[in-house]
Amino acid sequence: MSKASRVVIDLDVPGPTISRHLYGHFAEHLGRCIYGGFYVGEDSDLPNEGGIRLDVVEALKALNIPNLRWPGGCFADEYHWKDGIGPKAERPSMINTHWGNVEENNHFGTHEFMALCELLGADPYINGNVGSGTVQEMSEWVEYLTRDGDSPMVRQRKANGRDEPWKVPFWGVGNETWGCGGNMRAEAYADLARRYATFCRDHGDNKLYRIAAGASDDDLNWTEALMKAISCLGCGRDPKNIFQAISFHYYTVAGTWANKGRATEFDLDDYYRTMIKAQDIERVIRGHSAVMDAYDPERKVGLVLDEWGTWWDVEPGTNPGFLFQQNAMRDALVASLHFDVFHRHADRLVMANIAQTVNVLQAMLLTDDDGGLVLTPTYHVFEMNKGHHEATAVPVHLVEQPEPYELDGKTMDLLSASASVKDGKALISVSNLDPGSSADVVLDLRGAEIRNPAGRLLTASKPQSYNTTTDTAVAPVTLTGLEADPRGLRVTLPPHSFATISLDV
Ligand code: AHR
């Protein structure tokens, strides 16, 4: 083990509020996320409410899921919401051309999604169809969901069994419109986003937070085109009048798209490449923020990362269009370091949605049709970090830390950390990303008296470790060896581990 690292934490220097929506989720009609994941149908032998699997709901409730994005993804731009309301037997089918070319029977539609959100206690984030849908269709969906009183859409909603309007805070105006959502050019989409967003009305006291479909990775030109479309520098118009946020997507793909590598079978170089790619999210967020700052220095328009996470080759023997992958300790560390970055940029980054909640990509839960339910390592990071929701971020300085690891001319930090304060409690998250060595860490805590420190630890025998229905290899335990130090606290973190330390302040 090398010399101790020192992490200075200014507990009395309040930064931005960490929106709970940075811990948001995403559920697409893709593979076994909805059908066979969240939704098993009313006739299933598995305990369900209206077809929604109850053990899935219970497991997710422990994460305090703040919002759930639906129905896509790429699927959103071929989804026609009117096919998913009314008696199930009469709902038309369609082909899900993006994901496996399977038949979609539309049994999980608007009412089922809203029921799921109610069970989870999550705010709905609905992604409307720009690519193949009309302005009228999107406008009527908003009316159907959120209008009170009497109107054509309200009458339909009531006929389908729901009298009261729902609250829908978040509305996506298309998805990946540079690709699967219509292959548009930035300026062309920017104009469409203005038009569609205009007709997504605020009905009654339901105030929509309209999110324009943003860039892939670090395509800053895309963000600039969208910011230009809502700005008029010097004219005094509020840039957030038309849409209130711009999204972007960033996946941790460590290899190439053709050969992404396996979730549980990888060597050390693969591990380092993954972390390097994951840490690059900070450069990407900085880039989009800088572009937005130029047009919106007061930061009224939000930045939303509504798809992120690891993307591996599918598990052998599974449908390549279903994006089913295992989830190892390495995935947990990708998540923990993303959250540290999110906390640092909480003044512009207002929402993030990991892709996807159940059975797809970097999932929280893996299920099988026999009632098996696996909590993935990533699930535990979300659970351990819950205390950061709506807390005040405080500055964290890694003043002494191991030399960054170098691979292929790129570097990777071996330590990652962030901290926040809320209701007289501080929560510190620290990841030792070094797969081979423990990290001796001094938490140099400034600006508050430290009381009742306690910690939790997530690690495993190797970064490849993962959970199955019969073997739980990765689950949080009490962090032992947390000691007082003249500067605050001292702790030794095992290789490839994630820890949270809470204290009264
Ligand atoms: O999350 C899987 C897919 O990734 C989404 O449908 C799409 O938006 C992105 O390319």
Automatic annotation (TrEMBL):
> What name is this protein filed under?
non-reducing end alpha-L-arabinofuranosidase
Q: Which reaction does it catalyse?
A: Hydrolysis of terminal non-reducing alpha-L-arabinofuranoside residues in alpha-L-arabinosides
Q: Its GO biological process terms? A: L-arabinose metabolic process; polysaccharide catabolic process
User: Which family does the UniProt entry place this protein in?
Assistant: Belongs to the glycosyl hydrolase 51 family.
Keywords of the record, alphabetical order, are: Carbohydrate metabolism, Glycosidase, Hydrolase
Q: Does the keyword RNA-binding apply?
A: no
Q: What EC class does the entry list? A: hydrolase
Q: Name one GO molecular function term.
A: alpha-L-arabinofuranosidase activity
Assembly: Homohexamer; trimer of dimers.
Q: Does the keyword Protein biosynthesis apply?
A: no
The record lists the membrane-crossing segments as none
Could you tell me which SMART domains the record lists for this protein?
Answer: Alpha-L-AF_C
E.C. code: 3.2.1.55
In what residue span(s) does the Alpha-L-arabinofuranosidase C-terminal domain sit?
Answer: 306-497
